[in-house]
Specification:
There is one protein chain. The longest helix is centred in the first third of the chain and has 24 residues. By secondary structure, this protein is mainly α. Helix content is 40%, strand content 10%. The chain is elongated. A 3-stranded antiparallel beta sheet has the order 1-2-3, with helices on one face. The protein has a two-stranded antiparallel ribbon with strand order 4-5. The protein has 11 helices and 5 strands. α1 crosses α2. The chain has 4 domains: 69 residues, no CATH class; 82 residues, 2-Layer Sandwich (formyl-coa transferase, domain 3), CATH 3.30.1540.10; 41 residues, no CATH class; 37 residues, no CATH class. The relative contact order is 0.07.
Length: 261
């Protein structure tokens, strides 16, 4: 669906093939949009006492997520292209750079950030360079400016640049791996990695709840279901008898979970 919806066509490096985003964005965005729609319909039912059908699809949600890219295309006719980690709509620089030990994203999308970014890189003279004096000029001289940034950033490790840039309130972050992000202090503080016990497997760590409620806090309390664990129960709720369920299992129509001894 990323390919069909136009998303994949604008994802990846300019001189490389189209890339799929790592997370399953089509499935997850459709699920979230469906949830929002259900809540909206539920609120309307509270007011009108009438229910209604809520309908969406992977395609519709992916097209909706194109958002500003659609606006830009409709207003200018310019087709969005692959730009790697760069953000083509928020200025230059705004992308990942290779530091001495790893990658770091540096974002400068207003004049204050631009001047402070130059100072943090020990090149305050860049801020007044006639070629880079405005956002439009920086866009016109993008390749030159990025080459200059790339050469300087490569001279020191990520931590060095992160501290210098953040000290001047210039957005900067390491390009974290999954192993790095789950070890982050903020992730722990927000309880986004929790431990649950899985019968037969012991304790495992899973993602926590991204929504926090002041009056009705939630928690991850159930482990992921085993294959076929709930099949019989769901069929019973639909009116199937034990004999019918057993027959379906015997004929291989369904699979039933058999807990390990």
């Amino acid at each position: 669906m990323q390919a069909y919806s136009g998303t994949m066509g604008m994802t990846g490096e300019p001189d490389r093939p189209p890339s799929k985003m790592g997370p399953s964005v089509a499935d997850r965005s459709a699920g979230m949009m469906a949830t929002i729609g259900i809540l909206m319909a539920l609120e309307n039912r509270h007011r009108t006492r009438r229910g209604q059908r809520v309908d969406t699809s992977l395609l519709e949600c992916q097209v909706a997520m194109l958002a500003q890219h659609l606006t830009r295309y409709f207003s200018s006719g310019e087709v969005p292209v692959r730009a790697g980690s760069a953000n083509s709509g928020l200025g230059v620089p705004y992308q990942a750079f290779q530091a001495a030990d790893d990658w770091i994203v540096i974002a400068s999308f207003n004049e204050r950030m631009w001047r402070d970014c130059c100072a943090a890189l020990d090149h305050p003279e860049w801020a007044d360079d006639p070629r880079f004096r405005t956002a439009d000029l920086r866009g016109q001289h993008r390749d030159l400016l990025l080459a200059m940034f790339t050469k300087v950033v490569a001279q020191h490790p990520v931590k060095y640049w992160e501290e210098r840039l953040r000290a001047r309130q210039v957005p900067a972050t390491p390009v974290n791996s999954v192993a790095q992000i789950v070890a982050e202090e903020q992730v722990a503080a927000r309880e986004m990695v929790v431990e649950i016990d899985v019968p037969g497997a012991g304790p495992i760590r899973v993602a926590g709840l991204p929504l926090k409620f002041s009056d009705t806090p939630g928690a991850v309390v159930s482990p992921p279901p085993r294959l076929g664990e709930h099949t019989a129960n769901l069929l019973r709720r639909l009116g199937y008898s034990a004999e019918q369920i057993g027959d379906l299992a015997k004929r291989g129509v369904i699979g039933l979970d058999v807990p390990a001894e």
